[in-house]
Model the fold of this input.
Amino acid sequence: MEHLGWGIIVRDHRGEVIAAKAGRTDHVSDAFHAELIAAVQAVSLAEQMGVIHIDIEMDSQLLMLALNRREADTSPQAVTLDDLKYQLRTTFSRYNVLACKHECNYPAHELANLGFSCAVSGAMLWEFECPEAIAGYVSGDMPLVDQ
Done:
């Protein structure tokens, strides 16, 4: 894997889209690394937006387990993974890392396709909306939220 597009969707406590972001990254080693890059982007955007409670949903069971594990990581991505775990612990008053089925992450994958068209290390940000190309998919994947 040489380069990839990534995509993230930020929702509020009601499940409404408050931001979407897509971009491109080069020098990606494998699928785990690709998912980790998307998670780093999601956490960074949430921090910039002043979020204090975060639920991260991803379709990588392996990354979800790695982020929830307390022990230090020994994978080739250990430094990035441990930095992300530290950022989660110190930035947010509450965080959850959850895995979902691949199909549930379809809007983020469509955003990743848009991100692939960006310049290297470039990104596109939509605030209080999502790109028209994925709007229908986003409304169909609304997470279950407490009423």
